[in-house]
Design a protein that fits this description.
single chain; about 325 residues; mainly alpha; Ferritin; 2 domains; 10 helices
Length: about 325
């Protein structure tokens, strides 16, 4: 059988479908940023980010068309008002590209391990390479602009060591008196960092949101992000580490929304679901029971917040439904118990 006649598998459908919708959403943000960007170093990076997302979206569309597969609605120029005043500064536009890269690079790497058809593998490999290249450019520019906050450092150990056997493993090594290790410190830093970027994003969106129900949801998200930052900074300070401090506020005074309510709600639910995935990874690296307790508590709250956001989208008929397998019981007219 020739490879091009092989039907798409469920992981391949999921990856293509998800990539299409996410690219269509980020395109709207990049188009808004480019209407007002003044910084001659930041603008080319955002232009490259826009080109990358448009290229990926077009290729997914071509694959679906060839497969005679329905194309998700996603988002379009109808979801962004290019005449609206700037909502964020140039520096936030750069931070946005950086944050998208932080999420997209591991996403494409994971997708590559789940797809098998040669053209799909080639497509996501290309997406990974282009996204990685762009991420490095954004990271280097953040360094030069002085807006990249470096993760914590620790003194180099004199030698490699094994964990020593203790009286009770759970009460000592996994207890709350052992100093934070390198992995735990790094994950605390990145959890704080992504929540800082999220707060800036939310402040702008709250500022322009007119829908009362969605606005209340966004405010709740801002409070949840602040809670995570305060909790983790408190842990750092208890351990005699400096807490992380945001560089500056990158939101303008505009109250005119450049984005549709549907796009805003989608982006926040997307970032929330990404936060759940990343917090789960953070939990897997934690070896202190106090950290695990804190993360577990936060996980429950974030999952509930994510559920509320999805419910809002579903109730308004705004959520693209991922293709489902046939309901065999229904087709066979079998009543479910």
């Amino acid at each position: 059988m020739e490879e091009h006649t092989i039907q798409l598998t469920t992981p391949e459908i999921t990856a293509l479908w998800t990539s299409y919708i996410q690219s269509s959403a980020t395109i709207c943000f990049y188009k808004h940023f480019l209407q007002y960007l003044q910084d001659s170093e930041i603008k080319p990076i955002v232009e490259e980010a826009l080109f990358l997302e448009q290229t990926c979206r077009k290729k997914v569309e071509a694959i679906f068309t060839e497969e005679k597969f329905p194309i998700p609605k996603g988002f379009s120029d109808k979801d962004v008002d290019l005449s609206a005043p700037p909502l964020y500064t140039d520096l936030f536009a750069l931070s946005f590209v950086y944050r998208v890269g932080q999420v997209a690079v591991p996403y494409y790497a994971t997708v590559l391990t789940k797809v098998g058809r040669s053209d799909i593998v080639a497509f996501f490999d290309e997406c990974l390479q282009m996204t990685t290249k762009l991420y490095k450019k954004a990271l280097n520019l953040m360094f030069s602009k002085g807006i990249y906050d470096r993760p914590p450092k620790i003194p180099y150990p004199n030698q490699a060591e094994f964990i020593q056997k203790q009286e009770t493993l759970l009460s000592t090594w996994f207890g709350d008196k052992r100093p934070l290790n390198a992995a735990e410190l790094g994950e605390i830093f990145y959890t704080i960092e992504r929540n800082y970027i999220g707060i800036v994003l939310l402040i702008g969106l709250i500022q322009v949101m007119k829908d009362k129900e969605i606005k209340e949801y966004l405010i709740k998200g801002k409070k949840l992000a602040e809670k995570q930052i305060n909790l983790l900074n408190m842990i750092l300070k208890k351990e005699n580490h400096l807490g992380n401090i945001p560089v500056s506020m990158e939101v303008t005074e505009s109250t005119d929304s450049p984005f549709s309510d549907r796009l805003i709600l989608f982006v926040i639910t997307l970032t929330t679901s990404t936060g759940i995935y990343l917090l789960a990874y953070t939990m897997s690296t934690a070896m202190r029971k106090d950290l695990l307790a804190h993360y577990s508590m936060l996980m429950l709250e974030i999952m509930k917040y994510s559920e509320d956001g999805l419910e809002l989208m579903i109730n308004r008929g705004w959520l693209d439904q991922l293709p489902q397998s046939p309901d065999r019981d229904k087709l066979l007219n079998i009543k479910k118990r």
